[in-house]
Amino acid sequence: MLELAKDLALFPVLGISRTEDVPLDVHGTYTRNEILAAAGLFGFDRRVDVREGVRFVPEAKLDLLFVTLDKSEKEYSPSTMYEDYALSDRLFHWQSQSTTGEHSPTGQRYIHHRETGHRMFLFLRKKKKTANHPFQVSEPYVFAGPVFYRSHQGSRPMNVIWELAYPLPAHLFRESARLGVRM
Fold first, then answer.
1. According to the model, what pLDDT value does residue 76 have?
2. Residue 115: predicted pLDDT
3. Beta partners for 141?
4. Considering the entire predicted model, what is its pTM?
5. 114: burial class by Cβ within 10 Å (0-12, 13-18, 19+)?
6. Cα–Cα dist 133/94, whole Å
């Protein structure tokens, strides 16, 4: 039955991308709480709140990068209107939090994550709230997969270019690239 559901999915997931400790499928759709639960941060005995767009999980050597592509001034402050967009289906421009400098421990973790064994996971969603739901619930994220540091410019915030392990699905690439052109 599960295989049939995967065959009928509008946006298929890549089951090959699962890791032993974080059971998420690349291109799968997840709520923030499901992502946090998969990373060991949310459950019956543990609940970690994530309000910002990044959650560092030191015990797993993992950074969860949460990106909302279409940010509205009504829902985001000027300091959180980050410029996040696809450059191609394999390259993603991401802006760090405004307090992250390139020489800070966080900036250095981003730059040197491969050498230190840290993993960077990118999660994307179009908007903060669903448009067609009567209760305006939070839109789920698509797990874009692991990303790898390519380069950066600037500091506070850092403009990082991440290379994706798997190409973005066409619908996410189109939406993200469109927003990048508008910037």
1. 55
2. 98
3. 30
4. 0.85
5. exposed
6. 28
Q: What angle do CA 58, 149, 129 make, to 5 degrees?
A: 70
What distance, in Å, lies between the first and last C-alpha atoms of the chain? Answer: 44
Q: What Cα–Cα distance (Å) separates residue 14 from each residue in 9, 76, 96?
A: 12, 32, 27
Q: Cis peptide before 146, with omega less than 30 degrees from 0?
A: no
CA distance 7 to 12: 7
Sorted by sequence, the CB contacts under 8 Å of residue 67 that are 6+ apart come out as 53, 82, 84, 94, 122, 123, 124, 125
Residue-wise pLDDT for 92-103, tens only, equals 999 999 999 999
Q: Which two tokens stand for residue 110?
A: 């981003």
Rounded CA separation 68/79 (Å): 14
pLDDT at residue 32 in the model = 92
Q: Which residue is listed with tokens 């019956």? A: 44
pLDDT value of position 74: 61
